Amino acid sequence: MTAPVARRGFSEEAIHALNERRGEPAWMQERRLDAWKIYENLPMPTRLDEEWRRTDLRALKLDDIAPFAEVSGSAASLLPPSEREEAFAGVLGLRGGEQVEHLLRDDLRGQGVIFTDLRSAIREHGDLVRKHFMTRCVPPSDSKFAALHGAFWQNGVFLYVPRGVAITEPFRVIISAALHRSASLTHTLVVLDEGAQATLVEDATSDEVTEQGMSSRVVELILERASVLHYVGTQRLGRAVYDFHTERVLLGRDTTATLQTIELGSRLTKGRVEAILGGDGASVKLLGLYVADGKQHMDRYTLQDHRAASGTSDLLFKGVVTDEARSVFSGLIRVTPEGKGTAAYQQNRNLLLSRTARADSIPNLEIGANDIIGCSHGATVGKVDEEQLFYLMCRGLSRIDATRLIVEGFVDPLVAMVPVAGLRDALRREISARVGEAETARAS
Amino acid sequence: MAIVEVGPESDIQPGQSACVFVNDIPIAIFNLNGEYYAIGDTCTHEDFSLSEGEVFEDATVECALHGSRFDLRTGEALSLPATGCAGSYEIWVEDGVIKLEVP
Protein backbone atom coordinates (compact mmCIF):
# COMPACT_ATOMS: atom_id res chain seq x y z
CA MET A 1 0.00 0.00 0.00
CA THR A 2 1.39 3.39 -0.95
CA ALA A 3 0.16 6.53 0.76
CA PRO A 4 -0.50 9.63 -1.27
CA VAL A 5 2.25 12.25 -1.00
CA ALA A 6 -0.18 15.13 -1.35
CA ARG A 7 -3.82 15.36 -0.41
CA ARG A 8 -5.25 17.23 -3.37
CA GLY A 9 -3.91 19.51 -6.04
CA PHE A 10 -0.55 19.87 -7.76
CA SER A 11 2.10 21.99 -6.03
CA GLU A 12 5.86 22.43 -5.69
CA GLU A 13 5.61 20.98 -2.20
CA ALA A 14 4.21 17.79 -3.68
CA ILE A 15 7.18 17.55 -6.06
CA HIS A 16 9.62 17.75 -3.14
CA ALA A 17 7.67 15.10 -1.26
CA LEU A 18 7.68 12.90 -4.34
CA ASN A 19 11.40 13.24 -4.88
CA GLU A 20 12.14 12.50 -1.24
CA ARG A 21 10.01 9.38 -1.39
CA ARG A 22 11.57 8.11 -4.59
CA GLY A 23 15.16 9.03 -3.86
CA GLU A 24 15.58 10.27 -7.40
CA PRO A 25 18.90 11.75 -8.56
CA ALA A 26 19.40 15.50 -8.37
CA TRP A 27 19.09 15.98 -12.14
CA MET A 28 15.59 14.56 -12.15
CA GLN A 29 14.59 16.73 -9.20
CA GLU A 30 15.86 19.76 -11.15
CA ARG A 31 13.93 18.72 -14.22
CA ARG A 32 10.75 18.29 -12.25
CA LEU A 33 11.12 21.73 -10.68
CA ASP A 34 11.99 23.34 -14.03
CA ALA A 35 8.91 21.74 -15.55
CA TRP A 36 6.80 23.01 -12.66
CA LYS A 37 8.07 26.57 -13.30
CA ILE A 38 7.06 26.24 -16.94
CA TYR A 39 3.67 24.93 -15.88
CA GLU A 40 3.11 27.85 -13.55
CA ASN A 41 4.15 30.37 -16.20
CA LEU A 42 1.88 28.99 -18.90
CA PRO A 43 -1.79 29.98 -18.77
CA MET A 44 -4.42 27.27 -18.58
CA PRO A 45 -5.75 26.79 -22.13
CA THR A 46 -9.15 28.29 -22.84
CA ARG A 47 -11.43 28.17 -25.84
CA LEU A 48 -9.90 31.43 -27.00
CA ASP A 49 -6.82 29.37 -27.98
CA GLU A 50 -7.24 27.90 -31.45
CA GLU A 51 -6.05 24.44 -30.42
CA TRP A 52 -8.53 24.35 -27.52
CA ARG A 53 -11.39 26.11 -29.22
CA ARG A 54 -13.59 23.03 -29.32
CA THR A 55 -12.64 21.54 -25.95
CA ASP A 56 -14.05 22.91 -22.72
CA LEU A 57 -11.87 22.40 -19.65
CA ARG A 58 -13.96 24.46 -17.25
CA ALA A 59 -15.34 21.35 -15.57
CA LEU A 60 -11.88 19.96 -14.82
CA LYS A 61 -11.11 20.45 -11.13
CA LEU A 62 -7.34 20.00 -10.99
CA ASP A 63 -7.22 21.34 -7.43
CA ASP A 64 -9.45 18.51 -6.33
CA ILE A 65 -7.27 15.78 -7.81
CA ALA A 66 -4.51 14.03 -5.90
CA PRO A 67 -1.26 13.86 -7.87
CA PHE A 68 -0.71 10.35 -6.52
CA ALA A 69 -3.14 7.70 -5.49
CA GLU A 70 -2.99 4.72 -3.22
CA VAL A 71 -2.38 1.51 -5.06
CA SER A 72 -5.49 -0.58 -4.82
CA GLY A 73 -6.26 -4.06 -5.97
CA SER A 74 -3.96 -7.03 -6.06
CA ALA A 75 -0.54 -7.13 -7.58
CA ALA A 76 -1.54 -10.05 -9.78
CA SER A 77 -0.61 -10.23 -13.44
CA LEU A 78 -2.31 -7.58 -15.53
CA LEU A 79 -1.86 -9.60 -18.70
CA PRO A 80 -5.31 -10.88 -19.71
CA PRO A 81 -5.70 -14.70 -19.75
CA SER A 82 -6.41 -14.53 -23.50
CA GLU A 83 -2.86 -13.30 -24.09
CA ARG A 84 -1.00 -15.69 -21.80
CA GLU A 85 -0.13 -18.07 -24.64
CA GLU A 86 1.11 -15.36 -26.97
CA ALA A 87 4.78 -14.81 -27.65
CA PHE A 88 6.13 -11.52 -26.36
CA ALA A 89 9.64 -10.09 -26.31
CA GLY A 90 8.80 -8.62 -22.93
CA VAL A 91 5.86 -7.81 -20.67
CA LEU A 92 5.53 -4.92 -18.27
CA GLY A 93 2.57 -4.21 -15.99
CA LEU A 94 2.13 -1.03 -13.98
CA ARG A 95 -0.64 -0.59 -11.44
CA GLY A 96 -1.00 2.88 -9.90
CA GLY A 97 2.54 3.67 -11.02
CA GLU A 98 4.02 0.61 -9.31
CA GLN A 99 5.59 -2.14 -11.37
CA VAL A 100 3.67 -5.36 -10.69
CA GLU A 101 4.86 -7.45 -13.60
CA HIS A 102 8.08 -7.57 -15.57
CA LEU A 103 9.48 -9.98 -18.06
CA LEU A 104 12.25 -9.64 -20.65
CA ARG A 105 13.48 -12.53 -22.74
CA ASP A 106 16.97 -13.56 -21.65
CA ASP A 107 18.39 -13.62 -25.17
CA LEU A 108 17.31 -10.01 -25.68
CA ARG A 109 18.79 -8.98 -22.34
CA GLY A 110 22.01 -10.59 -23.51
CA GLN A 111 21.97 -8.51 -26.68
CA GLY A 112 21.77 -5.31 -24.67
CA VAL A 113 18.05 -4.65 -24.97
CA ILE A 114 16.69 -2.60 -22.06
CA PHE A 115 13.00 -2.96 -21.25
CA THR A 116 11.99 -1.84 -17.81
CA ASP A 117 9.89 0.63 -15.88
CA LEU A 118 11.15 4.19 -15.99
CA ARG A 119 11.98 4.45 -12.28
CA SER A 120 14.30 1.46 -12.54
CA ALA A 121 15.74 2.82 -15.78
CA ILE A 122 16.73 6.06 -14.02
CA ARG A 123 18.57 4.04 -11.38
CA GLU A 124 20.22 1.55 -13.70
CA HIS A 125 20.63 3.46 -16.97
CA GLY A 126 20.62 7.06 -15.78
CA ASP A 127 22.79 8.53 -18.55
CA LEU A 128 20.67 7.08 -21.32
CA VAL A 129 17.43 8.27 -19.76
CA ARG A 130 18.87 11.67 -18.93
CA LYS A 131 19.89 12.16 -22.56
CA HIS A 132 16.47 11.40 -24.01
CA PHE A 133 13.80 11.99 -21.33
CA MET A 134 11.74 15.06 -22.27
CA THR A 135 14.69 16.74 -23.99
CA ARG A 136 14.37 16.78 -27.77
CA CYS A 137 11.15 14.84 -28.40
CA VAL A 138 8.50 16.21 -26.00
CA PRO A 139 10.08 18.90 -23.80
CA PRO A 140 8.02 20.30 -20.89
CA SER A 141 7.75 23.60 -22.77
CA ASP A 142 5.64 21.79 -25.37
CA SER A 143 2.38 22.62 -23.61
CA LYS A 144 0.79 23.31 -20.24
CA PHE A 145 -0.02 19.64 -19.76
CA ALA A 146 3.42 18.46 -20.95
CA ALA A 147 4.90 20.70 -18.27
CA LEU A 148 2.59 19.24 -15.64
CA HIS A 149 3.62 15.81 -16.84
CA GLY A 150 7.32 16.71 -16.59
CA ALA A 151 6.82 17.83 -13.01
CA PHE A 152 4.64 14.95 -11.80
CA TRP A 153 5.22 11.90 -13.99
CA GLN A 154 4.90 8.80 -11.82
CA ASN A 155 6.36 5.95 -13.76
CA GLY A 156 6.35 4.50 -17.23
CA VAL A 157 8.22 2.41 -19.71
CA PHE A 158 11.73 2.57 -21.05
CA LEU A 159 12.66 0.54 -24.12
CA TYR A 160 16.10 0.72 -25.67
CA VAL A 161 17.07 -1.52 -28.57
CA PRO A 162 20.76 -1.42 -29.46
CA ARG A 163 22.25 -1.13 -32.93
CA GLY A 164 21.23 -3.78 -35.41
CA VAL A 165 19.00 -5.80 -33.08
CA ALA A 166 15.73 -6.72 -34.78
CA ILE A 167 12.92 -8.10 -32.61
CA THR A 168 9.84 -9.62 -34.21
CA GLU A 169 7.68 -10.33 -31.17
CA PRO A 170 5.97 -7.33 -29.57
CA PHE A 171 6.76 -5.80 -26.22
CA ARG A 172 3.52 -5.68 -24.25
CA VAL A 173 2.77 -2.97 -21.70
CA ILE A 174 -0.34 -2.71 -19.53
CA ILE A 175 -0.87 0.43 -17.49
CA SER A 176 -3.68 0.31 -14.97
CA ALA A 177 -4.71 3.10 -12.61
CA ALA A 178 -7.43 3.78 -10.06
CA LEU A 179 -8.09 7.46 -10.90
CA HIS A 180 -10.71 8.08 -8.25
CA ARG A 181 -10.17 11.83 -7.78
CA SER A 182 -6.54 11.14 -8.52
CA ALA A 183 -4.10 11.36 -11.39
CA SER A 184 -2.05 8.94 -13.42
CA LEU A 185 0.91 10.42 -15.28
CA THR A 186 2.75 7.76 -17.23
CA HIS A 187 5.64 8.18 -19.59
CA THR A 188 6.83 5.97 -22.41
CA LEU A 189 10.33 6.44 -23.76
CA VAL A 190 11.48 4.32 -26.68
CA VAL A 191 14.92 4.67 -28.23
CA LEU A 192 15.85 2.53 -31.22
CA ASP A 193 19.50 2.68 -32.17
CA GLU A 194 20.71 2.39 -35.78
CA GLY A 195 19.12 -0.46 -37.68
CA ALA A 196 17.09 -1.70 -34.70
CA GLN A 197 13.55 -3.02 -35.06
CA ALA A 198 10.83 -3.36 -32.42
CA THR A 199 7.10 -3.41 -31.78
CA LEU A 200 5.53 -1.97 -28.62
CA VAL A 201 1.87 -2.44 -27.71
CA GLU A 202 0.58 -0.61 -24.67
CA ASP A 203 -2.84 -0.41 -23.16
CA ALA A 204 -3.89 2.32 -20.70
CA THR A 205 -6.82 1.31 -18.50
CA SER A 206 -8.39 2.46 -15.27
CA ASP A 207 -11.06 1.50 -12.80
CA GLU A 208 -14.57 2.64 -13.71
CA VAL A 209 -14.74 5.63 -11.38
CA THR A 210 -17.67 7.95 -10.82
CA GLU A 211 -15.72 11.02 -9.75
CA GLN A 212 -13.30 12.99 -11.84
CA GLY A 213 -9.82 11.63 -12.41
CA MET A 214 -6.95 12.77 -14.61
CA SER A 215 -4.63 10.91 -16.91
CA SER A 216 -1.55 12.32 -18.59
CA ARG A 217 0.33 10.19 -21.06
CA VAL A 218 3.46 11.24 -22.90
CA VAL A 219 5.00 8.87 -25.43
CA GLU A 220 8.44 9.72 -26.83
CA LEU A 221 9.59 7.55 -29.72
CA ILE A 222 13.13 8.24 -30.93
CA LEU A 223 14.32 6.43 -34.03
CA GLU A 224 17.95 6.55 -35.05
CA ARG A 225 19.08 5.85 -38.60
CA ALA A 226 17.41 2.97 -40.49
CA SER A 227 15.46 1.74 -37.46
CA VAL A 228 11.90 0.38 -37.67
CA LEU A 229 9.17 0.78 -35.04
CA HIS A 230 5.54 -0.25 -34.76
CA TYR A 231 3.89 1.44 -31.78
CA VAL A 232 0.31 0.79 -30.72
CA GLY A 233 -1.31 2.71 -27.87
CA THR A 234 -4.84 1.93 -26.75
CA GLN A 235 -6.79 3.97 -24.24
CA ARG A 236 -9.64 2.38 -22.28
CA LEU A 237 -9.92 4.71 -19.29
CA GLY A 238 -12.97 5.13 -17.07
CA ARG A 239 -15.79 7.43 -18.10
CA ALA A 240 -15.05 10.16 -15.55
CA VAL A 241 -11.42 10.58 -16.56
CA TYR A 242 -9.93 13.63 -18.26
CA ASP A 243 -7.12 12.37 -20.46
CA PHE A 244 -4.30 14.44 -21.94
CA HIS A 245 -1.75 12.76 -24.13
CA THR A 246 1.05 13.36 -26.59
CA GLU A 247 2.47 10.66 -28.79
CA ARG A 248 5.39 11.91 -30.84
CA VAL A 249 7.87 10.07 -33.01
CA LEU A 250 11.21 11.57 -34.07
CA LEU A 251 12.32 9.93 -37.29
CA GLY A 252 15.98 9.90 -38.27
CA ARG A 253 17.40 9.11 -41.69
CA ASP A 254 15.83 6.15 -43.53
CA THR A 255 13.66 5.19 -40.56
CA THR A 256 10.22 3.63 -40.75
CA ALA A 257 7.50 3.95 -38.13
CA THR A 258 3.87 3.04 -37.67
CA LEU A 259 2.20 4.97 -34.86
CA GLN A 260 -1.24 3.66 -34.05
CA THR A 261 -3.68 4.94 -31.43
CA ILE A 262 -7.05 3.50 -30.45
CA GLU A 263 -9.19 5.47 -28.03
CA LEU A 264 -12.36 4.15 -26.48
CA GLY A 265 -12.52 5.51 -22.94
CA SER A 266 -12.44 8.70 -20.83
CA ARG A 267 -14.93 11.52 -20.33
CA LEU A 268 -12.75 13.92 -22.26
CA THR A 269 -9.56 13.25 -24.13
CA LYS A 270 -7.30 15.83 -25.70
CA GLY A 271 -4.34 14.50 -27.55
CA ARG A 272 -1.57 15.14 -30.00
CA VAL A 273 -0.24 12.50 -32.36
CA GLU A 274 2.80 13.79 -34.18
CA ALA A 275 5.55 12.60 -36.49
CA ILE A 276 8.67 14.72 -36.97
CA LEU A 277 10.50 13.54 -40.08
CA GLY A 278 13.93 14.94 -39.33
CA GLY A 279 16.08 12.64 -41.48
CA ASP A 280 16.09 12.13 -45.25
CA GLY A 281 14.09 9.17 -46.53
CA ALA A 282 12.02 8.69 -43.39
CA SER A 283 8.63 7.05 -43.69
CA VAL A 284 5.73 7.04 -41.22
CA LYS A 285 2.19 5.79 -41.00
CA LEU A 286 -0.14 7.40 -38.49
CA LEU A 287 -3.24 5.38 -37.76
CA GLY A 288 -6.00 6.34 -35.38
CA LEU A 289 -9.37 5.08 -34.27
CA TYR A 290 -11.77 6.61 -31.77
CA VAL A 291 -15.18 5.43 -30.67
CA ALA A 292 -17.21 7.89 -28.60
CA ASP A 293 -20.64 7.48 -27.06
CA GLY A 294 -22.66 8.97 -24.18
CA LYS A 295 -21.27 12.44 -23.57
CA GLN A 296 -17.68 11.61 -24.38
CA HIS A 297 -15.53 14.30 -25.95
CA MET A 298 -12.50 13.28 -28.00
CA ASP A 299 -10.25 15.92 -29.48
CA ARG A 300 -7.02 15.22 -31.24
CA TYR A 301 -4.45 17.18 -33.20
CA THR A 302 -2.13 15.42 -35.60
CA LEU A 303 1.05 16.67 -37.22
CA GLN A 304 3.09 15.29 -40.09
CA ASP A 305 6.14 17.53 -39.97
CA HIS A 306 8.43 17.06 -42.97
CA ARG A 307 11.76 18.70 -42.13
CA ALA A 308 13.99 16.64 -44.44
CA ALA A 309 14.06 15.40 -48.03
CA SER A 310 12.25 12.41 -49.55
CA GLY A 311 10.00 11.75 -46.57
CA THR A 312 6.73 9.85 -46.78
CA SER A 313 3.84 10.14 -44.37
CA ASP A 314 0.41 8.59 -44.56
CA LEU A 315 -2.32 9.28 -42.03
CA LEU A 316 -5.67 7.57 -41.58
CA PHE A 317 -7.88 8.40 -38.61
CA LYS A 318 -11.36 6.95 -38.29
CA GLY A 319 -14.04 7.82 -35.80
CA VAL A 320 -17.38 6.36 -34.74
CA VAL A 321 -19.47 8.85 -32.80
CA THR A 322 -22.89 8.22 -31.31
CA ASP A 323 -25.35 9.42 -28.63
CA GLU A 324 -24.38 12.97 -27.65
CA ALA A 325 -20.67 12.40 -28.07
CA ARG A 326 -18.35 14.76 -29.85
CA SER A 327 -15.12 14.25 -31.73
CA VAL A 328 -12.67 16.75 -33.13
CA PHE A 329 -9.92 15.94 -35.60
CA SER A 330 -7.48 18.67 -36.53
CA GLY A 331 -4.56 17.58 -38.66
CA LEU A 332 -1.66 19.44 -40.22
CA ILE A 333 0.80 18.41 -42.89
CA ARG A 334 3.75 20.78 -42.73
CA VAL A 335 6.60 20.72 -45.22
CA THR A 336 9.59 22.97 -44.53
CA PRO A 337 11.83 24.23 -47.39
CA GLU A 338 14.15 21.26 -46.66
CA GLY A 339 11.32 18.81 -47.37
CA LYS A 340 12.00 18.28 -51.07
CA GLY A 341 10.53 15.14 -52.55
CA THR A 342 7.91 14.84 -49.79
CA ALA A 343 4.85 12.64 -50.26
CA ALA A 344 2.25 13.20 -47.55
CA TYR A 345 -1.37 12.10 -47.27
CA GLN A 346 -3.98 12.61 -44.63
CA GLN A 347 -7.44 11.14 -44.36
CA ASN A 348 -10.05 11.47 -41.61
CA ARG A 349 -13.30 9.53 -41.86
CA ASN A 350 -16.16 9.76 -39.37
CA LEU A 351 -19.30 7.76 -38.96
CA LEU A 352 -22.15 9.39 -37.03
CA LEU A 353 -24.70 7.01 -35.55
CA SER A 354 -27.09 9.52 -34.01
CA ARG A 355 -28.53 12.92 -34.84
CA THR A 356 -27.06 14.45 -31.71
CA ALA A 357 -23.50 13.18 -32.21
CA ARG A 358 -21.04 15.56 -33.75
CA ALA A 359 -17.70 15.15 -35.50
CA ASP A 360 -15.55 18.08 -36.59
CA SER A 361 -12.77 17.46 -39.07
CA ILE A 362 -10.23 20.16 -39.84
CA PRO A 363 -7.40 19.07 -42.14
CA ASN A 364 -4.67 21.58 -42.97
CA LEU A 365 -1.69 21.85 -45.31
CA GLU A 366 1.31 24.12 -44.89
CA ILE A 367 3.73 23.58 -47.76
CA GLY A 368 7.03 25.47 -47.70
CA ALA A 369 8.87 23.51 -50.42
CA ASN A 370 8.31 23.71 -54.18
CA ASP A 371 9.71 20.38 -55.23
CA ILE A 372 7.38 17.84 -53.63
CA ILE A 373 5.81 14.66 -54.95
CA GLY A 374 2.43 15.42 -53.44
CA CYS A 375 0.50 16.48 -50.37
CA SER A 376 -3.20 15.89 -50.07
CA HIS A 377 -5.89 15.52 -47.49
CA GLY A 378 -9.48 14.40 -47.25
CA ALA A 379 -12.21 14.37 -44.64
CA THR A 380 -15.64 12.76 -44.49
CA VAL A 381 -18.42 12.90 -41.92
CA GLY A 382 -21.46 10.79 -42.67
CA LYS A 383 -24.19 8.49 -41.45
CA VAL A 384 -24.52 4.76 -42.00
CA ASP A 385 -25.58 4.21 -45.60
CA GLU A 386 -29.33 3.41 -45.72
CA GLU A 387 -28.82 1.24 -48.82
CA GLN A 388 -26.26 -0.89 -47.02
CA LEU A 389 -28.62 -1.21 -44.06
CA PHE A 390 -31.48 -2.19 -46.37
CA TYR A 391 -29.29 -4.81 -48.07
CA LEU A 392 -28.36 -6.42 -44.76
CA MET A 393 -31.89 -6.22 -43.33
CA CYS A 394 -33.18 -7.98 -46.46
CA ARG A 395 -31.02 -10.90 -45.38
CA GLY A 396 -32.71 -11.16 -42.02
CA LEU A 397 -30.58 -8.95 -39.81
CA SER A 398 -32.23 -6.50 -37.43
CA ARG A 399 -31.43 -2.84 -37.92
CA ILE A 400 -29.26 -2.91 -34.80
CA ASP A 401 -27.25 -5.92 -35.97
CA ALA A 402 -26.94 -4.48 -39.46
CA THR A 403 -25.60 -1.20 -38.06
CA ARG A 404 -23.19 -3.09 -35.85
CA LEU A 405 -21.92 -5.10 -38.78
CA ILE A 406 -21.33 -2.00 -40.88
CA VAL A 407 -19.48 -0.30 -38.02
CA GLU A 408 -17.35 -3.41 -37.55
CA GLY A 409 -16.45 -3.30 -41.22
CA PHE A 410 -15.60 0.38 -40.93
CA VAL A 411 -13.21 0.00 -37.98
CA ASP A 412 -11.75 -3.44 -38.59
CA PRO A 413 -8.95 -2.53 -41.03
CA LEU A 414 -7.43 -0.51 -38.18
CA VAL A 415 -8.16 -2.97 -35.37
CA ALA A 416 -6.72 -5.79 -37.47
CA MET A 417 -3.33 -4.05 -37.45
CA VAL A 418 -2.94 -4.51 -33.67
CA PRO A 419 -0.23 -7.18 -33.47
CA VAL A 420 -1.57 -8.89 -30.32
CA ALA A 421 -4.42 -11.32 -31.01
CA GLY A 422 -5.92 -11.22 -27.51
CA LEU A 423 -6.04 -7.42 -27.45
CA ARG A 424 -7.36 -7.30 -30.99
CA ASP A 425 -10.27 -9.56 -30.06
CA ALA A 426 -10.97 -7.60 -26.88
CA LEU A 427 -11.13 -4.36 -28.86
CA ARG A 428 -13.46 -5.90 -31.43
CA ARG A 429 -15.78 -7.17 -28.69
CA GLU A 430 -15.80 -3.86 -26.86
CA ILE A 431 -16.52 -1.77 -29.95
CA SER A 432 -19.22 -4.15 -31.11
CA ALA A 433 -20.89 -4.21 -27.68
CA ARG A 434 -20.84 -0.44 -27.34
CA VAL A 435 -22.35 0.15 -30.75
CA GLY A 436 -24.99 -2.48 -30.02
CA GLU A 437 -25.86 -0.89 -26.67
CA ALA A 438 -26.08 2.61 -28.14
CA GLU A 439 -28.29 1.42 -31.01
CA THR A 440 -30.52 -0.61 -28.68
CA ALA A 441 -30.97 2.38 -26.36
CA ARG A 442 -31.83 4.60 -29.31
CA ALA A 443 -34.33 2.10 -30.69
CA SER A 444 -36.17 1.66 -27.38
CA MET B 1 -34.34 13.19 -13.33
CA ALA B 2 -32.59 14.88 -10.43
CA ILE B 3 -33.11 18.22 -8.75
CA VAL B 4 -29.98 20.26 -8.16
CA GLU B 5 -29.62 23.37 -5.99
CA VAL B 6 -27.69 26.04 -7.86
CA GLY B 7 -27.41 28.62 -5.06
CA PRO B 8 -29.24 31.54 -3.46
CA GLU B 9 -31.43 33.69 -5.62
CA SER B 10 -29.20 36.66 -4.89
CA ASP B 11 -26.30 35.01 -6.75
CA ILE B 12 -27.80 35.81 -10.14
CA GLN B 13 -29.37 39.25 -10.15
CA PRO B 14 -31.73 40.49 -12.89
CA GLY B 15 -29.70 41.06 -16.06
CA GLN B 16 -27.01 38.60 -14.96
CA SER B 17 -26.12 35.16 -16.21
CA ALA B 18 -23.91 32.33 -14.98
CA CYS B 19 -22.60 28.96 -16.03
CA VAL B 20 -22.91 26.00 -13.67
CA PHE B 21 -21.65 22.47 -14.15
CA VAL B 22 -23.89 19.54 -13.31
CA ASN B 23 -22.23 16.15 -13.84
CA ASP B 24 -19.60 17.99 -15.88
CA ILE B 25 -22.29 19.36 -18.22
CA PRO B 26 -22.22 23.17 -18.56
CA ILE B 27 -25.61 24.84 -18.08
CA ALA B 28 -26.22 28.54 -18.68
CA ILE B 29 -28.59 30.29 -16.27
CA PHE B 30 -30.11 33.68 -17.06
CA ASN B 31 -32.08 36.07 -14.91
CA LEU B 32 -34.16 38.21 -17.25
CA ASN B 33 -36.17 40.77 -15.27
CA GLY B 34 -36.55 38.32 -12.39
CA GLU B 35 -37.48 35.38 -14.60
CA TYR B 36 -35.00 32.50 -14.63
CA TYR B 37 -34.06 30.46 -17.70
CA ALA B 38 -31.65 27.53 -18.10
CA ILE B 39 -30.29 26.20 -21.38
CA GLY B 40 -27.21 24.27 -22.43
CA ASP B 41 -24.21 26.59 -22.15
CA THR B 42 -22.50 25.47 -25.33
CA CYS B 43 -23.28 27.14 -28.64
CA THR B 44 -24.06 24.32 -31.06
CA HIS B 45 -22.12 26.04 -33.81
CA GLU B 46 -18.61 26.58 -32.44
CA ASP B 47 -18.82 25.66 -28.77
CA PHE B 48 -18.67 29.12 -27.27
CA SER B 49 -20.21 29.73 -23.83
CA LEU B 50 -23.73 31.12 -24.19
CA SER B 51 -23.71 32.51 -20.65
CA GLU B 52 -21.19 35.04 -21.98
CA GLY B 53 -23.59 36.18 -24.69
CA GLU B 54 -25.87 39.21 -24.81
CA VAL B 55 -29.43 38.70 -23.55
CA PHE B 56 -32.38 40.42 -25.20
CA GLU B 57 -35.82 41.33 -23.88
CA ASP B 58 -37.53 38.79 -26.15
CA ALA B 59 -35.93 36.01 -24.08
CA THR B 60 -33.14 35.23 -26.50
CA VAL B 61 -29.37 35.18 -26.12
CA GLU B 62 -26.85 36.00 -28.83
CA CYS B 63 -23.66 33.97 -28.89
CA ALA B 64 -20.71 36.32 -28.53
CA LEU B 65 -18.61 34.43 -31.07
CA HIS B 66 -20.64 34.40 -34.29
CA GLY B 67 -23.97 35.94 -33.33
CA SER B 68 -26.32 32.95 -33.40
CA ARG B 69 -29.47 33.58 -31.37
CA PHE B 70 -30.96 30.98 -29.04
CA ASP B 71 -34.37 30.88 -27.39
CA LEU B 72 -33.95 30.97 -23.62
CA ARG B 73 -37.17 28.98 -23.14
CA THR B 74 -36.34 26.04 -25.39
CA GLY B 75 -32.64 26.28 -26.27
CA GLU B 76 -33.56 26.22 -29.98
CA ALA B 77 -31.24 28.00 -32.39
CA LEU B 78 -33.17 30.87 -33.99
CA SER B 79 -30.54 32.09 -36.44
CA LEU B 80 -27.52 30.88 -38.36
CA PRO B 81 -24.77 29.81 -38.19
CA ALA B 82 -25.99 27.56 -35.36
CA THR B 83 -28.70 25.06 -36.28
CA GLY B 84 -28.78 22.61 -33.37
CA CYS B 85 -30.75 22.95 -30.16
CA ALA B 86 -28.63 23.72 -27.07
CA GLY B 87 -31.19 21.99 -24.82
CA SER B 88 -33.21 23.48 -22.00
CA TYR B 89 -33.80 22.67 -18.34
CA GLU B 90 -36.57 23.29 -15.84
CA ILE B 91 -35.54 26.04 -13.44
CA TRP B 92 -37.37 27.63 -10.52
CA VAL B 93 -36.84 29.38 -7.21
CA GLU B 94 -37.94 27.73 -3.99
CA ASP B 95 -37.45 29.37 -0.59
CA GLY B 96 -34.92 31.76 -2.11
CA VAL B 97 -32.86 28.96 -3.68
CA ILE B 98 -32.46 28.48 -7.44
CA LYS B 99 -33.18 24.87 -8.40
CA LEU B 100 -32.63 22.95 -11.64
CA GLU B 101 -34.04 19.70 -12.90
CA VAL B 102 -31.48 17.71 -14.88
CA PRO B 103 -31.65 14.29 -16.53
Rounded to an integer in angstroms, the radius of gyration calculated over CA atoms of chain A is: 21 Å
End-to-end distance of chain A, in Å? Answer: 45 Å
* Helical residue percent band of chain A: 10-25%
Percent in strands of chain A = 35-45%
Record field, number of beta strands of chain A: 19
What is the first-to-last residue Cα distance of chain B? Answer: 4 Å
| Residue windows where pLDDT falls under 50 for at least 5 positions of chain B | none
SSE map:
The complex is a heterodimer of chains A (444) and B (103).
Chain A: H1 12-22, H2 26-41, E1 90-95, E2 98-104, H3 106-110, E3 114-117, H4 118-124, H5 126-132, H6 144-152, E4 155-161, E5 171-177, E6 183-192, E7 197-206, E8 213-223, E9 228-236, E10 241-251, E11 256-263, E12 268-277, E13 283-292, E14 297-306, E15 312-321, E16 326-335, E17 343-352, E18 358-367, E19 374-383, H7 386-394, H8 399-415, H9 421-443
Parallel strand pairs in A: 1-5, 4-6, 5-7, 6-8, 7-9, 8-10, 9-11, 10-12, 11-13, 12-14, 13-15, 14-16, 15-17, 16-18, 17-19
Antiparallel strand pairs in A: 1-2, 3-4
Chain B: E1 2-8, E2 17-22, E3 25-32, E4 35-40, E5 54-56, E6 60-62, E7 69-71, E8 88-94, E9 97-102
Antiparallel strand pairs in B: 1-9, 2-3, 3-4, 4-8, 5-6, 6-7, 8-9
Describe, in plain words, how this protein is organized in 3D:
By secondary structure, chain A is an alpha/beta fold. Chain A has nine helices and 19 strands. Chain A has a ten-stranded mixed β-sheet with strand order 2-1-5-7-9-11-13-15-17-19. Chain B is mainly β. In chain B, the strands form two sheets. Chain B has a six-stranded antiparallel β-sheet, with no helix packed on it. In chain B, strands 5-6-7 form a three-stranded antiparallel β-sheet, with no helix packed on it. The model of chain B has no long low-confidence stretch (mean pLDDT 92). The N and C termini of chain B lie close together (4 Å). Chains A and B meet through loops of A and loops of B.
